[in-house]
Amino acid sequence: MDGGTPRLSSAKGNKVAVPLSDAALVQQGFFDRDPRAVAPELLGMLLISDKDGVVTGGRIVETEAYLGSDDPGSHAATKGITKRNATMYGPPGHLYVYFTYGNHHMLNLVCESEGTAGAVLIRAIEPTIGLETMRLRRQGRSDRELTNGPGKLAAALGLTMSDNGGGLIDSAIRIHALRLPAGERVATSGRIGLSAGHELHLRYYLEGHKNVSKGRIG
DNA sequence: GACGTGATTGTA
DNA sequence: ACAATCACGTCC
């Protein structure tokens, strides 16, 4: 493949705070399996958004796995393919972005092979890259509250429905395979905000991390 | 702690 | 037709 060097030289108005060139890009095959395996492994990895050369991002600190028909909390729970959830049944490694509560976009990464539903919801990142841009997109919020929730994160990264269905090559999102530093631990819990399926412990987060969301389990 | 937002989907 | 939903911001 064409290597792990992201297009950062074109970034306008953003200082890249973290050296990225050594971190390999995560490939599509990484996502071609159970989201319960993918979700915890994404923790600590670097998520980069490049919207027309404006680069933002940071390390992933909180994720949730969503399954197919066996998961009452998933958009793919009872039905088959609908207009909204079609991306969840598509090829792995693509972005599933949806709009909810009339206000917020959510970023998921599709898992499992094409034809099988599954995804990982990115719930929080540690905002480090393109801070100036993220502050503008999240005006009036403290740095700590820039990306500590799924709707907040999507807003800070500039994601909209036009990003739904994009692949890891042609979309705005790239993921770099960073290792979890010694001392950081993965914890699990029930997922947040669900009326069903909360008994499944499919939320994964870095224990004690400052940028983990404050939502309630249920 | 409760409410408005308001697209999509499931239920009536 | 109507209520619920993988939140967030604001007001009480």
CATH level-four homologous superfamily name: Methylpurine-DNA glycosylase (MPG)
| String of helices and strands | HEEEEEHHEEE
Tally of contiguous helical segments: 3
Measured by DSSP, the beta-strand proportion falls in 25-35%
Measured distance between first and last alpha carbons: 42 Å
- Range of helix content: 10-25%
Provide the domain count. 1
Write down the CATH topology: 3-methyladenine DNA Glycosylase, Chain A
The low-confidence parts are 1-11
Characterize the biggest β-sheet: 8 strands, antiparallel
**CATH architecture classification name:** Roll
CATH top level label:
Alpha Beta
Question: Which outline best applies?
Answer: globular
For this entry, give a set of tags:
eight-stranded antiparallel sheet, 3-methyladenine DNA Glycosylase, Chain A, alpha+beta, DNA-binding
Topology, element by element:
Layout: H1 35-42, E1 46-51, E2 54-66, E3 95-100, E4 104-110, E5 119-129, H2 131-137, H3 150-156, E6 173-176, E7 186-189, E8 203-206
This protein binds a DNA duplex (12 and 12 nucleotides) through strand 3, strand 4 and helix 3.
What does this structure look like?
The protein has one domain: Methylpurine-DNA glycosylase (MPG) (3-methyladenine DNA Glycosylase, Chain A), CATH 3.10.300. The protein has helices at 35-42, 131-137, 150-156; strands spanning 46-51, 54-66, 95-100, 104-110, 119-129, 173-176, 186-189, 203-206. The protein is α+β, with helices and mostly antiparallel strands. Helix content is 10%, strand content 25%. Strands 1, 2, 3, 4, 5, 6, 7 and 8 form an eight-stranded antiparallel beta sheet that branches. It binds a DNA duplex (12 and 12 nucleotides) through residues 64, 66, 73-75, 78-79, 82-85, 98-104, 106, 108, 121, 123, 149-152, 155, 191-195, 197, 213, 215.
